[in-house]
Amino acid sequence: MNREFVSGLAVEAGNLLVRHLGARIVRVKFGTDIVTEADEAAERFIREEVRRHYPGHRVTGEEYGSSEGEAEWEWVVDPLDGTVNFARGNSYFAVSIGLVHRGEVRIGVVYRPLTRELFAAERGGGATLNGEPLSVSQVDRVEESIVILDWTRRHSRHDTFALTERLFFAASKVRSFGSAALDLCSVAAGQLEAFIHPGLSAWDFAAGHLILTEAGGTITTLAGEPRSIEAGSVVATNGKIHPEVLSLLTLPPG
Ligand code: IPD
Ligand code: CA
Ligand code: CA
Question: Is the CB of 178 under 6 A from ligand 1?
């Protein structure tokens, strides 16, 4: 098992997405949450490759769920993170693959095919962008920080806004781009300081989680608890502003 294999898989799946640009929407999951032929084709490709090379491993993907197989090694896959952007011809989408061993992400790869950016990390081995080492920014005040706030229709915008209102006004700039995996990589690359989301699935952040922490960043839940790969809220920062960000979130009592 190695980082090169996982990277190669993400690049091939990304190239497949590019060939499917303009793909048909096959179903609507919830509100603007859509699935295209490309999401399904890329996940089928990744599943088949893993089955061929590592037949005993489990695959958990957004479109086809969990395969049979021992859970010791699990591939947590978002074949297309940023589907809404993809469907509108916006290049901010990626393939995200996390390789998990007994609940711990060992290898994480996020590939943005239209800009050919390959983010990769191996536990204990640092994080890279196209082979060059990555590290988080040194900004240490929210006032000087660029912060990504994101949400889904499943979490009411009012609830999300109430939670993040103080941070919204405290930050230097606020953004929302539409691919959680790439957002985590942007924090890892020092392009901005924080990413906050009230509820993500494991495939959205399994790879980005490792890339961020290997680049020196910090990731917790909104309540400041350690972030496992179970679904839930995410506060990801460059580490320096993490306590201040947490102190600015307005958590409901209890
Ligand atoms: C979505 C993106 C988006 C986030 C949503 C995710 P998808 O993933 O990561 O940024 O706000 O919660 O569901 O549906 O494009 O794979
Ligand atoms: Ca996703
Ligand atoms: Ca997806």
Answer: yes
Is-above-0.85 flag for pTM? yes
pLDDT tens by residue, 189-208: 999 999 999 999 999 999 99
Q: Is 196 exposed, middle or buried (0-12, 13-18, 19+ CB in 10 A)?
A: buried
Question: Near ion ligand 3, which residues have CB within 5 Å?
Answer: 62, 78, 80
d(CA 81, CA 180): 7
The answer, yes or no, to whether any atom of ligand 1 lies below 6 A from the CB of 200, is yes
DSSP 118-158: EEEEETTS-EEETTEE--------GGG-EEEE---TTS-HH
CATH code assigned at 54:
3.30.540.10
Give the end of a domain, one of 103, 133, 163. 133
Residue 192 and residue 114 share a domain: no
Residue-range definition of the domain harbouring residue 10? 3-133
For residue 30, the CA-to-ligand 2 centroid distance in Å is 13
Count of other CB atoms within 10 angstroms of residue 191: 12
**Does residue 253 sit within a domain?**
no
The ligand minimizing its distance to the Cα of 38 is 3
Nearest to 40 by CA among 11, 17, 56: 17
Q: Which ligand is nearest to the CA of 204?
A: 2
* Confidence band, pLDDT 50/70/90 cuts, at residue 216: very high
User: Is residue 43 in a domain?
Assistant: yes
* C-alpha of 172 from chain center: 23
Instruction: Clarify whether residues 129 and 221 are in a common domain.
Output: no
